[in-house]
Amino acid sequence: MAAPMSNVDEIRDRVILGEFGVKNVHTTDYPGNYPGYDDTWDMEKFKRNFKIDIVHADENTLEFDMIGIDAAIANAFRRILLAEVPTMAIEKVFIYNNTSIIQDEILSHRLGLVPIKADPRLFEYINSEDQEGTEIDTIQLQLKVKCTRNPRAPKDSSDPKELYLNHMVYSGDIKWLPIGNQADVFADAKIGPVHEDILLAQLRPGQELDIVMHCVKGIGKDHAKFSPVATASYRLLPEITLLQTIEGEQAERLKRCFSPGVIEIQNVNGKKVAKVVNSRLDTCSREVLRHDDLKNLVKLGRVRDHFIFSVESTGILPPDVLVTEAINVLISKCQKFLTELDAAEMD
Fold first, then answer.
1. Which residues form the DNA-directed RNA polymerase RpoA/D/Rpb3-type domain (predicted)?
2. Over residues 130-153, mean pLDDT
C-alpha cells in the first residue's frame, strides 16, 4: 500500500474518482493559493520535473507519457496535432467523364478524404489567386478507369469478379502526374494514396471514370481531410490505492472489477492477497464502487500532471514526425504571442 498523501497535496496533485462524482478536477496550484507552497513559475524547476517517455512506437502509432505539465498545454498540443499540422490533400477535382452511378459531388468528396502520401514540408501553401497551381504548391493526380467484360469468364459464372474487368475502382488506381520538374525533385518519393485498397466506386461494362485531381497544402482547421492523424488523445495516469489488505474471495472480486493486468492475486503466507501491479491499464470504470464491501477499501485517482498520449497517424507522415511538427507549431505560436506583447508595449 502506498504512503498516504496529505489532504493539500491530494487536492493539488490528484483527481479523485468518487462514487457520485469526480473531485479536484481544476488546477489550483497557482501562486499564493496555498500557504507554505511556492508555486511561482520557475524555469529550472520546470526542467527538472518535465519529461517525455516513449512507451510504444511503430510505423503508424505512438504512445508516450508527458509528465510535469499543465492540462492546458497538453490540450493545446492535442488540438495542434488534430488541426494545425499541415498535410497534402485533394482540393480540386476535374471530372471529364463519370458514367458510374455515383454522383459527381459524392465521388469528389470520397476522393478528397483519401490520404495522400506526400511530405507537406516540401511544398508551399497555394496562392488563393492562383487557379492553375505550380510544381511548388500542387500535386496532380489522375484516375482513369473503364470497365469491360471479361472475354475469358466462365459462361455459367455470376460472380462480378469473373465477369468484369476493372469493375472495382480502388485508390490504388490513382496515378501521379508530375508537374514541371517534380519528376526529378521527387524521384525517390512514391507520391500517391497512402492505402491502395480504399474502394472508391463500382462500375459495370461501358461505365468509366476520367478524373484529374489537384492536391494542395492545408490544415485540419480548414477541413478534416487535411488532418494528419486518425486520432490524437490523452488520458491521465490512473492511480489505485488499496487502503487495507484485501484477501480471499474479496481479492478475487476486486480483480474482476478492473481491467486485465491491473490487479493480481499473490500468495502471501498461504492466503490470496490482492496487489496493484499495473494501474496504467485501468480504464477507470469505477466498477469497484458498486460493491458495498469493497468501495471503502480502495481509493481511485488520477495523477494530474501525468498525461498518456496516443497518436495514430493516417500514414502521411510517421507519428514521431507529427509530434515534432506539432511542437514546432506550438513554438511558433508562443513566439508570435511574445512578438505581439512587445509590439503592444512599444505602442
1. 61-340
2. 91
- State the virtual CA torsion across 165, 169, 174, 175 in degrees, nearest 10: 0
The 3 state secondary structure assigned to the chain is CCCCCCHHHHHHHEEEECCCCEECCCCCCCCCCCCCCCCCCCHHHHHHHCEEEEEEECCCEEEEEEECCCHHHHHHHHHHHHHCCCEEEEEEEEEEEECCCCCHHHHHHHHHCCCEECCHHHCCCCCCCCCCCCCCCCEEEEEEEECEECCCCCCCCCCHHHHEECCEEEHHHEEEECCCCHHHHCCCCCCEECCCCCEEEECCCCCEEEEEEEEEEECCCCCHHHCCEEEEEEEEEEEEEECCCCEHHHHHHHHHCCCCCCEEEEEECCEEEEEECCHHHCCCCCHHHHCCCCCCCEEEEEEEEEEEEEEEECCCCCHHHHHHHHHHHHHHHHHHHHHHHHHHHHC
pLDDT tens track for 66-123? 999 999 999 999 999 999 999 999 999 999 999 999 999 999 999 999 999 999 999 9
Torsion sign, CA atoms 78, 83, 84, 88: positive
> Using CA atoms, how far apart are residues 214 and 137, in angstroms rounded to an integer?
10
Return d(Cα 268, Cα 271) in angstroms, integer: 5
Pair 283, 260: CB distance under 8 Å: no
Amino acid at 91: E
Which of the four pLDDT bands, split at 50, 70 and 90, describes residue 39?
confident
Residues belonging to the chain: 347
Strands of 208-218's sheet in order across: 87-98, 208-218, 139-146, 174-177
For the entire predicted model, the pTM comes to 0.86
CA distance 180 to 44: 51
